[in-house]
Specification:
alpha/beta; TATA-Binding Protein; 6-stranded mixed beta sheet; 3 domains; 38% helix; 15 helices
C-alpha cells in the first residue's frame, strides 16, 4: 500500500489503517526529513500541529520522534490547532516549516499530512515532488544515515500571537460597538477552542456555540461547512434572531456563513463581499492585486476593474494562491471551495480570519444602515455589477474516462454552446471555456483528491445558466456510457 502515497492538491490524505498507517506516516516523515536536510532547511526547527481526527495526536507524536531522531528540532502542539495556526507559527517562530496532521473536510475515516514550507503556505508541486522522490528511495530499500545527535521536542501551548494578528487585521472596536448576535458551529474541529475564545474573550460577544468538543466522527456528518451540513446553525439563527451564523471545517482553514435572514452565502460571494468591503472602506493600495483560481467567480474581476486593481488567475488549489501571496502585494487570495486570506496575514487559507472579516462587515452594516444583512449587501453589489449565477457539479467518473470528457470540452473551442460562442479556451488546469456573451464561462477539471470530474459554470444570464447546466449534465452522461 505504501506505493500509493501521493501528495495531491493539499497534502497526502488516505484512509486510516488502510494506507494511512503508523508505518507509512513514519516513511513520509522520513522523506520530509531528507528533503529538509538536502535543502539546508534542518536548522531552525519544524512545528507540528494536528486536528481532532482519530489518532491525530499519536500520528503527530510519531512524526515528532522521527524528526528529532534525525537531528531536527521539533515544536509540537500540546493540543489540536487549526491549520492556519500551524502556518502562522512557522512565520512567527522563524522555522523551516511545519507538518499538519489533518484530512480537512474529508470523511472521518481519513487522515492526512500537509507540509507547510518556511513561507507559511501550502507546499507547491516543486516541493512535494522532491519529497515523493525521497519516499520512492525509501520504498526501494534505501536507508539514510546521518550520525546526528537527537534533537529536542518542545511542547507549544501559547498561540496568543496568532490571535493578536487576527485582532490587528479586523476592526475589533467596530465589532465591539455593534455587538452583533452571532452563532458559531465549529463542527467538532480544530477551531473548537480558539474561535469561541476570540468571540467571547477578545470581542466580548454573547455567542451561541455549537459542536465545540472533540468528536472524531464529527457528529455523523462531513466536517464541511456547506449549506446542507449547517441545518442546526440555521435553526438557532431563526430561533434566537441572530445577526450572523459562522462555521469552520475540520481543520478550520475553510469557512461557512449564514446571514440573519437565513441565507447561506457561498464562498464565491463571500470573497466578493470582503473584496467590495475593503475597497469601499479604502483598505487597499493602487499596487494591490487580487489572486483567484480558475474556478472562482468573475464577479471579483468586475470589482477589480472598478478600482483599477490587477487580477491574477491560478490553477485550482490554494498552494498556487499562496505562492503568489508570499511575494506580497496581494489584497485577497481566494478560491470557490472556501479558501481565503488577505494582505498582512499568512499565505494560507484561514477560516477564522474569513469569519471575522464577515463579522466586521455585519457590524459595519448594522451601525451604518440599522439592520441590513450580508445578503442585502450582496444584492447591492449585484445591482452594481450584475447578478453572477454560479454552480459546481461533482460528477463521479472512472479514471480512464476523464480524458475523454476533457477532450470533449477542449473540442468546443470557437463553437457555439447553447447559442453563445466560445471566444477563448484556457487549459492550464482542465479546460476552461470563456463565452462571448453574459460574462459566461465553463470549467471542467479532474479532482486532485477524489475520482471526480468537477464542472463549474457561471454567467450573468439566468436562462443561459440553466441551459448551460443541462448541456453539461447531458453530455457528460452520454460520454460515460
Amino acid at each position: 500500500m505504501s506505493s500509493a502515497i501521493k501528495f495531491g492538491t493539499d497534502g497526502w490524505r488516505s484512509i486510516i489503517a488502510d494506507d494511512f498507517t503508523f508505518g507509512n506516516v513514519s516513511l513520509v516523515t522520513e522523506a520530509i526529513c531528507e528533503y529538509l536536510i538536502d535543502e539546508s532547511l534542518d536548522r531552525k526547527g519544524i512545528f507540528i500541529g494536528y486536528d481532532n481526527r482519530f489518532l491525530s495526536e499519536e500520528f503527530a507524536g510519531l512524526s515528532a520522534r522521527v524528526l528529532s531522531e534525525t537531528g531536527i528540532k521539533v515544536f509540537l502542539a500540546k493540543e489540536s490547532v487549526p491549520t492556519p495556526v500551524s502556518a502562522f507559527m512557522v512565520k512567527k517562530m522563524g522555522l523551516d516549516g511545519a507538518l499538519m496532521f489533518t484530512a480537512s473536510h474529508n470523511p472521518p475515516k481519513y487522515n492526512g499530512i500537509k507540509f507547510i514550507p518556511d513561507y507559511g503556505g501550502p507546499a507547491g508541486q516543486d516541493v512535494t515532488e522532491k519529497i515523493e522522490k525521497k519516499l520512492a528511495l525509501l520504498l526501494s530499500g534505501k536507508r539514510f544515515e546521518h550520525g546526528r545527535r537527537q534533537a529536542k521536542v518542545d511542547l507549544v501551548s501559547d498561540f496568543v500571537s496568532y490571535i493578536d494578528r487576527l485582532m490587528d487585521i479586523v476592526d475589533k472596536s467596530l465589532i465591539k460597538k455593534a455587538s452583533p448576535k452571532v452563532g458559531l458551529d465549529t463542527m467538532f474541529g480544530a477551531g473548537s477552542k480558539i474561535m469561541p475564545h476570540i468571540l467571547v474573550h477578545r470581542l466580548g460577544l454573547d455567542a451561541t456555540v455549537l459542536n465545540d468538543w472533540r468528536d472524531p466522527l464529527f457528529g455523523g456528518r462531513l466536517p464541511d461547512p456547506s449549506k446542507e451540513n449547517l441545518e442546526k446553525l440555521l435553526e438557532i439563527i431563526d430561533k434566537q434572531n441572530l445577526d450572523l451564523g459562522m462555521a469552520l471545517d475540520g481543520d478550520a482553514d475553510r469557512f461557512g456563513v449564514i446571514d440573519g435572514k437565513g441565507v447561506f452565502i457561498n464562498p464565491n460571494n463571500v470573497i466578493s463581499l470582503i473584496l467590495n468591503y475593503l475597497t469601499e472602506t479604502g483598505r487597499y493600495s493602487p499596487q494591490d492585486i487580487i489572486v483567484r483560481t480558475l474556478a472562482t467567480t468573475h464577479l471579483i474581476d468586475e470589482i477589480c476593474k472598478e478600482h483599477n486593481l490587477g487580477i491574477e488567475e491560478t490553477p485550482v488549489g490554494f498552494k498556487h494562491i499562496g505562492k503568489a501571496m508570499a511575494k506580497g502585494n496581494v489584497l485577497i487570495g481566494g478560491e470557490e471551495s472556501g479558501g481565503l486570506s488577505i494582505k498582512g496575514h499568512i499565505p494560507e487559507k484561514d477560516g477564522l480570519l474569513a469569519n471575522l472579516m464577515l463579522l466586521e462587515i455585519q457590524s459595519y452594516l448594522k451601525l451604518k444602515n440599522k439592520g441590513p444583512y450580508l445578503s442585502d449587501y450582496l444584492n447591492e453589489i449585484y445591482d452594481r455589477y450584475g447578478t453572477f449565477y454560479n454552480l459546481r457539479m461533482d460528477l463521479e467518473v472512472e479514471e480512464d474516462k476523464k480524458n475523454r470528457i476533457l477532450g470533449f470540452f477542449a473540442g468546443l473551442g470557437a463553437k457555439e454552446v447553447e447559442g453563445n460562442k466560445v471566444k477563448e479556451t484556457i487549459e492550464i488546469d482542465g479546460v476552461k471555456l470563456l463565452f462571448e456573451k453574459h460574462k459566461g464561462w465553463l470549467l471542467a477539471r479532474p479532482s486532485g483528491t477524489e475520482p471526480l470530474i468537477r464542472c463549474y459554470i457561471e454567467t450573468t444570464d439566468k436562462p443561459f445558466f440553466d441551459s448551460l447546466k443541462k448541456f453539461v449534465e447531458k453530455n457528460i452522461k452520454n460520454l460515460l456510457k
